[in-house]
Write a structure and sequence with these properties.
single chain, 389 residues, alpha+beta, Phosphatase 2c, domain 1, 2 domains, 5-stranded antiparallel beta sheet, 10 helices, 25% strand, globular
């Protein structure tokens, strides 16, 4: 896809052309990136040997240029081209490194997006996006930029489809309600070597900052399970912790972003469930009795560590109803006195609905939250995951 725009002007989407015919990018730059599958940074394209005679460069005289490939499973999916006509040397090594870390995630997200395209025709999808964008603008009365909407689409594509989750956990639901257009909460699922891994993660902040943290968290979880083969939930949390500190360079900078998480690993053959949490707990009901397993009293990230506190794994029999969640539901203000919902009331609700079908549980939680907050705005992202074993 191709688009063009400038500061203060709307983005114009341009009909797709094969890369070999389009006149909207310098062909020499795109051919290099397509051939080598390596990023290319030009401090001043109009002065760079090998590129300054490109017809596009001669006509438009771009200065800073960044072009990088999106590769998934060894296959080139897309080429991203960015230019700055005002200044040279805009695209630094640090910015290139961040884009490189996210490029694999973008590739996976684009692949997931194709699953959604099979459910609806392109016309219906584009119409729904226009209607949704109009409603958001009216509701929020804000100047929502195209970049935020694109971030939303990437984040939605990042989330596992429900049919993938319910293939391995048929009795399950996900109640996911972002506070803003994009969310700092995300859920993650994978089935690997006979184990189902499901996580509820609450990143620092909400909106765009939280959403970018969720992209990092999603990439790290994929690496921990698929590349490193870690299936113990406490070891997964330790790997997430170290990964966040490394990716955000928290040992060298004052960045202190992080996340809380609850992770369950279900061994289907041995009928066991192992749980570990970073602040966030597991609530489950067995034989009519409700139980709570607290997460460790530390989060993920440099600023969320507590001296000597380790993540620990709790193993349970894989029978009953299980729930993991962020703190958004129980922290919501509402009711007759405008107070927080609180964890005790939340556990009581889960206990009261645990015997009903999972689809009904989702609907009752949604209706209950709406009635509780009434006219009070939603204060945080909300995520609740439930499943029966």
């Amino acid at each position: 896809m191709t688009a063009k725009g400038a500061m203060g002007e709307p983005i114009t989407w341009i009909d797709n052309d094969p890369l070999g015919r389009t006149t909207f990018v310098p062909q020499s730059v795109v051919r290099y990136v397509t051939r080598t599958q390596q990023p290319l940074v030009l401090s001043n394209a109009s002065k760079e040997e090998g590129y300054k005679k490109d017809p596009y460069v001669l006509e438009h005289q771009p200065k800073s240029v960044l072009c990088f490939p999106v590769v998934n499973k060894g296959r080139l999916q897309q080429v991203f081209y960015l230019e700055n006509n005002l200044a040279t040397g805009t695209f630094t090594a640090n910015r290139q490194e961040v884009l490189g870390m996210l490029s694999s995630q973008i590739g996976i997200s684009l692949e997931n997006a194709q699953l959604y395209e099979n459910l609806e025709g392109k016309v219906k999808q584009r119409t729904a996006e226009v209607v949704s964008q109009k409603e958001i603008i009216e509701k929020k009365n804000a100047d929502i930029t195209a970049s935020i909407n694109y971030a939303r689409r990437i984040q939605e594509a990042m989330l596992p489809p429900m049919d993938q989750l319910q293939k391995h956990l048929p009795e399950s639901f996900v109640f996911y309600q972002p506070r803003d257009i994009v969310s700092g909460d995300f859920y993650w699922f994978d089935h690997y070597k006979g184990h189902s891994i499901i996580a509820a993660v609450d990143c620092t902040g909400h909106g765009v900052p939280g959403a970018f943290m969720s992209l990092i968290g999603n990439s790290l979880l994929l690496d921990v399970v698929r590349s490193r083969g870690i299936l113990d939930p406490s070891e997964m949390l330790e790997a997430l912790d170290e990964g966040v500190i490394r990716w955000l360079k928290q040992r060298e900078t004052d960045n202190r972003d992080g996340m809380d998480a609850a992770i369950c690993v279900i061994d289907h053959e041995n009928k066991t469930l192992r749980f570990a949490g970073a602040h966030n707990p597991l609530v489950y009901v067995q034989e009519g009795e409700i139980h709570k397993v607290d997460g460790s009293r530390r989060g993920i990230g440099m600023n969320r560590r507590k001296g000597g506190v380790k993540f620990s794994t709790k193993e349970l029999k894989a029978e009953g109803s299980f729930y993991i969640f962020s703190d958004g539901y129980q922290d919501q203000f509402g009711g007759p006195n405008g107070k927080k919902y609180m964890s005790r009331r939340f556990r009581n609700v889960l206990h009261s609905i645990h015997e009903t079908p999972m689809s009904d549980q989702h609907d009752r939680l949604e209706k209950n939250l709406m009635e509780w907050r009434n006219d009070i705005p939603q204060i945080d992202d909300v995520l609740v995951i439930g499943f029966k074993l």
